[in-house]
Design brief:
Elements: H1 2-24, E1 28-34, H2 43-57, E2 62-67, H3 69-72, H4 78-83, E3 89-93, H5 116-125, H6 128-136, E4 141-148, E5 155-157, E6 171-173, H7 176-184, E7 188-190, H8 197-202, E8 208-209, H9 214-220, E9 228-230, E10 239-245, H10 246-250, H11 254-289, E11 294-296, H12 300-320, H13 322-351
Parallel strand pairs: 1-2, 1-3, 6-7, 6-8, 9-11
Antiparallel strand pairs: 3-10, 4-10, 5-8, 5-9
Helix pairs in contact: 2-11, 6-13, 7-12, 9-11, 12-13
């Protein structure tokens, strides 16, 4: 009898071990909602790459299914959908949420702020990630860097912008804090979903828009309607984001959490490299195929007015929002230190080798 008891006990233990192993390796299926349409490369390519890495590393046990804005029909609703648990993840940009929570605004890009390498250094080693998680904690979600565009161009305009008067009454699509700055100068600012930009410009709903840079802009055809293409000031390092529902993330096995973190980080930086490459290719295309495009830079008068409005608004917003102020002070302090190295390593080299 003792012998059979030992056999039964061994079998029970084996079943328990197998059941435990099976549970830990159970297939997990998440859904991710994008702000972008399904063909908006390289934003969508980055998300697809991230999901593929997670699936490969998990031996097919962690699947992330992607819904583009064409499918879920709410490009600017993805934050609420992740918050509610309708989707476990989203891919978007933090500055789209300024109307919901101004404390989320600093984690995409700020006018006259950090370049992409400076911003990545701040996120991962200068306290930026900790501040971002602090800002998103009230929304029961995490935010992770989701891919950088690098410095963005200042926009496509139907007419040349020579003076501050030319900005007054101008209808322009421009998101984030830059929109607040231009509104201060009399521009009529709006935000339009990416899939509707060309139509709005073509039909005259707007007079100007900014999108990203040559690599993405040329494919959307803005140059056919607005030939004046201005260099940037407003988004020197535009970091997209992965939004992750906190409850869903905490329920993941630890190894899946690590797989997800690694995949997001690799895909994010790869998007930066790919977009940089494609912008250089598109710039060469502009020179040979679209000579009617006029590359312009805003005048010193306009730039100085933008900087003054930017500082005024930063002070007002910081005075009213302690967490926003904490993030902006952190960026300013880090930028003061890192910009010295940027100047030595990049600017001083380039000015002698162009």
């Amino acid at each position: 009898m003792q012998y059979w008891r030992r056999i039964v006990a061994t079998l029970v233990l084996a079943v328990a071990v197998l059941t435990s192993a099976s549970a830990s390796e159970r297939k997990i299926v998440w859904k991710l909602a994008m702000t972008w349409g399904g063909t908006l490369h390289p934003f969508t390519t980055s998300v697809e790459s991230m999901a593929k890495m997670v699936e490969t590393m998990s031996d097919g046990n962690f699947i992330i299914r992607i819904d583009s804005a064409n499918r879920h029909k709410s490009p600017f609703g993805v934050l609420d959908m992740v918050k509610a648990g309708q989707y476990e993840m989203a891919h978007s940009a933090s500055y789209y949420w300024k109307g919901k929570d101004v404390n989320l605004l600093p984690f995409t890009s700020m006018p006259f702020g950090m370049t992409a390498p400076e911003q990545y250094a701040w996120f991962y080693y200068g306290g930026g990630m900790e501040l971002m998680q602090k800002a998103y904690a009230p929304h029961n979600m995490y935010s992770f860097p989701g891919g950088n565009t690098g410095a963005q161009m200042g926009g496509w305009f139907r007419k040349e912008i020579k003076t501050l008067e030319d900005l007054k009454g101008l209808k322009m699509r421009i998101p984030g804090f830059a929109g607040e700055v231009l509104a201060e100068l009399g521009t009529v600012v709006t935000n339009i979903a990416p899939g509707e930009l060309y139509t709005a410009l073509e039909r005259g709903t707007i007079d100007a828009l900014e999108w990203v840079g040559p690599g993405m802009d040329i494919k959307l055809g803005f140059h056919k309607v607005a030939p004046y293409y201005y260099t940037g000031w407003h988004e020197p390092a535009t970091e997209l984001q992965y939004l992750v529902n906190q409850k869903a993330y905490e329920a993941l096995p630890e190894k899946y959490k690590e797989m997800l973190r690694v995949a997001m980080r690799v895909a994010a930086y790869d998007m930066y490299a790919l977009n940089y490459h494609e912008s250089s290719e598109a710039w060469a295309q502009i020179a040979t195929e679209f000579p009617h495009i006029k590359i312009e830079t805003f005048s010193p008068e306009i730039m100085n007015a933008m900087k003054a409005a930017n500082q005024k608004l930063l002070k007002e917003m910081s005075d009213a929002n302690p967490l926003f102020k904490e993030a902006m002070e952190s960026q300013a302090q880090y930028l003061k230190k890192v910009r010295v190295w940027t100047k030595m390593s990049d600017f001083d080299y380039l000015k002698d080798n162009l």
